[in-house]
Amino acid sequence: MIRPRTQLGLLSLVALALLAAPALAQYERPVEAAPTEEDIGGGYVTPSVQHALPRAYWLVLLDAGLLAAALAVSCWLVLARRSRTGLLALAIVCLAYFGFYREGCICPIGAIQNVAAALTDPDYAISHATLLVFFLPLLLAVPFGRVFCGGVCPLGAIQELVLLKPLRVPRRLDRLLGLLKYAYLLLALWYAVRPAVERDFIICRFDPFVGLFRMTGPGYMLMIGGAFLLLGVFVGRPYCRYLCPYGALLALLSRFSRWGVTITPDQELDCGLCTDACPYGAIEQMRAVRSSCLFCARCYQTCPRERARVRLTTPVSAEPKPTELR
Q1: What is the pLDDT of residue 312?
Q2: Which residues contact 256 (CB under 8 A, 6 or more apart)?
Q3: Which residue among 28, 180, 188, 319 is the one 20 to 30 A from 10 at the CA level?
Q4: For residue 208, with 0-12 CB atoms within 10 Å meaning exposed, 13-18 middle and 19 or more buried, which class applies?
Q5: Residue 52, φ and ψ in degrees, nearest 5
Q6: What pLDDT score does 24 carry?
Q7: What pLDDT, on the 0 to 100 scale, is given for residue 51?
Q8: What's phi and psi for 228, nearest 5 deg?
Q9: 287 by DSSP, 3-state: which?
Q10: What is the helix (H) or strand (E) element at residue 288, kind and residue range?
Q11: What's the 3-state SS for 224-291?
Q12: 119: closest CA among 108, 131, 107?
C-alpha cells in the first residue's frame, strides 16, 4: 500500500511532466548549427579531434589523380626504362606522401571493405574517388601486372626499403604461406558484408603499418608493425606476400598480363643470376612469374644483358683531342 506522502510526490512529478510537455514540444534544435563555446559559456573549450578532419572533395580527387600518375610512372620505370634506381626514388616519394603525410588513407587495400559493403548494403555509399583508388591498380594489373606493388604502395615501399639481407624461403613453404592472403581476403569480405550493427573492417583495424604512419594507435599494433619490419630485414615483404588481401586480387588478375616484367625480352641467357637476385621467389625456370612478381626491378641489377644495355645507351663524354706537335 502506497503511503500518502509517497502518493503526493508521484502526483507532483506527473503534474510537472504535464506542464513541461508543451514547452518541450515547442523546442526545436537547428540541425545545421551546433552550440559554440560562447553559447555554452563557463570557460568551455571544444576538445580537439583525434584525427584530421575530412578533406575537401577536390583534394580527394587530387589524391586519386596523384595515385594514377604514380602508377603510370611505376609502369614506365619498370617496363620501359627498366630502372631499379628510379623505382626506389618513386617508392620513397610515395611512402612519404601516401604513407606518412596522408597517413595511409589513400589505400586500395582498405577500400576492399568499402566496395564490398556498398555492393551489398543499399544504405552504404562510397565516393567516386574511393572507386578510382580501388579499381585503378586492378585495371593496370590485367595488361601489365602488379604495378601498384612496385613503387606506389606505401606498405610495400616501407618493407622494400628495410630488406637488407634477404633469405630464401623454401618454395613449398612460400606457396603454403601465400594461401593465407586469400583466406584473409575472404574473411575481410565476410565481415564487410555483415549487417551494419555487426560490420567490421578488419583490414584497416589490423593494418600493421598504419600505426607507424600515424605515429599513434594501440601499443600491440605498433609492436606488430615493428615485428613485420624486423622480419622484413631478412624475409622479402612478408605482409605483401602472405597476408595482403589486395595482393590476392592483384595476383589473380596479373595472371592475364601480357606486358609484365621480362628479364631479357630480346634474348634469354638462362644464367640464373636473376633467380638469385629475386628475394620474393617470383622467378621460376629463369622466367618471371607474373602473379608473384612485385615489380621491384631487382632482377635488372644483376642481369648481364641489362648492364650491357645501360653501357651502350649511356652517352660517353667526348674526349679532348691530343695537342698536335709542331
Answers
A1: 54
A2: 142
A3: 28
A4: buried
A5: -65, 150
A6: 39
A7: 52
A8: -65, -40
A9: strand
A10: strand 287-288
A11: HHHHHHHHHCCCCCHHHHHCCHHHHHHHHHHCCCCCCCCCCCCCCCCCCHHHHHCCCCCEECCEECCC
A12: 131
| Widest distance between CA atoms in the chain | 136
Low-confidence ranges of the chain (pLDDT < 50): 8, 10-11, 13-14, 16-29, 49-50, 318-320, 322-326
Residue 308 near residue 90 (C-beta atoms within 8 A): no
Total residue length of the chain: 326
Q: Any idea which residue has 631499379 for its cell?
A: 84
pLDDT at 25: 42
153's CB contacts (< 8 A; 6+ apart) are 94, 98, 109, 240
* DSSP characters over 255-267: TT-SS---SSSS-
Q: Tell me the residue type at 66.
A: L
Quote the CA–CA distance of 128 and 133 in Å, as a whole number. Answer: 9
Question: Residue 326: what pLDDT?
Answer: 38
Whether the pTM exceeds 0.85: the reply is no
Amino acid identity at 111: A
Report the interhelical angle of 84-94 vs 154-162 (nearest 10°).
120
